[in-house]
Amino acid sequence: MKNKRIIYVLALAVFLIGTIEYIITGVIEMMAVDLGVSTSEAGLLVTVFALAAAIVAPILIALTINADRKKLLMTTLGVFIASNGLMLVDLAYETVLWIRIIQGASGGIATVVAMAVATRLVEKEKRGNAIGIILMGLSSSLVLGVPMGTFFSEMFGWRALFVLIGLLSVLPLLIIYQKVPAIKEEEKVTLRMQLSILRNPTILTALVITLFYVGGYSTLFTYITPFLQATSSLSMTEISGVLFLAGICSFVGSRVGGQLADAKGSKFTICLGLMLQGATLLLFALAGVNLWVLIMVLMIFMLATWSISPAQQLYLVTLAPRNPDIALSVNTSFIQFGFALGSGLGGLVISRTSVLYLNWLGFAAVSIALILAILLFNKMSSGTKTPIVTK
């Protein structure tokens, strides 16, 4: 594969962006205390990041579609780096919310553009592999970024962590400046074209499945640190270790999900993943019984959830063979909407009841996703496909 080292540099940039998005799950209690807000209010720092990535990023990408991809990537990375530097200042909670919005918008654009650039730097038959490497960078942020960040924050504070990641992001920025050529779109793609696929009921249903299964995941995992604290006697250092294992399972789940989708089909993989995800959310009710049961359930939960993503993306590509990039771009927005939905509803549950009820809300969301998947796949099996036409 051509330019393999540059692809890994792009994956490094996405890894750092993903770490900034997900790190709140490990330091949410610490940030809540420092900012003088409740845990549910601190959860909004996840919500606004996801909403910015889901709403603002696609719009800005559409508006800048004719711009040089290299310049756009460097600009958004630069904004991302600067926003992390601002976290060193002792700012009010409301100001930190705005910074998270900037991080979500700039990081969301940079992630999508990094995938677009990667596909243009390799041979046509290697584009899927290139995108896979970029997505590995994203899942690796859970494997390494979140637990290491949680451990680092325990020693030096969460503000220093944001600054450190901002400084590390300078490295891929410099390499992109030196090694990535100017890249422009050959054909104009408008926001209207990106949204046109939403008129297709089959694709819309598939996107709603993404929304609910990611929402069910985010409902619990956003608040996994206080959940583990409430159901076990683990210290913050031990919780960092558990999150590291969970991250490894997410990485393995992504690989296994892709391989299973190729071998058994995307529909089989999606349904299996959703059933396992729902079952583990139910089993979290037994979390206080035994620590090892809790850890095992969490590991299977992560494996199941992350195995769905590659199969879901493959399924969307088959639904929109002429415009796979647009379908995946909109799916990325729905993933971010799912994170926002889950973290927002989870915060509402915590503020009114207890963190121990989060798994039931997650189970309800995943159940909706599974029912929709069964209905959709049965409809498709009966031969009632809706062709995708993008003008």
Describe this structure in words.
This protein has 16 helices and no strands. It is an all-alpha fold and 391 residues long. The protein has two domains: 188 residues, Growth Hormone, Chain: A (Up-down Bundle); 202 residues, MFS general substrate transporter like domains (Growth Hormone, Chain: A), CATH 1.20.1250. Helix 4 runs antiparallel to helix 5, helix 5 runs antiparallel to helix 6 and helix 12 runs parallel beside helix 14. It is globular, with a radius of gyration of 20 Å. The C terminus is likely disordered. Its main location: membrane. This is MFS transporter. Keywords: Cell membrane, Membrane, Transmembrane, Transmembrane helix, Transport.
**Strand percentage:** under 5%
SS content category: mainly alpha
Shape: globular
Order of helices and strands: HHHHHHHHHHHHHHHH
Provide keyphrases for this structure.
391 residues; mainly alpha; Growth Hormone, Chain: A; 2 domains; disordered C terminus; transmembrane; cell membrane; MFS transporter
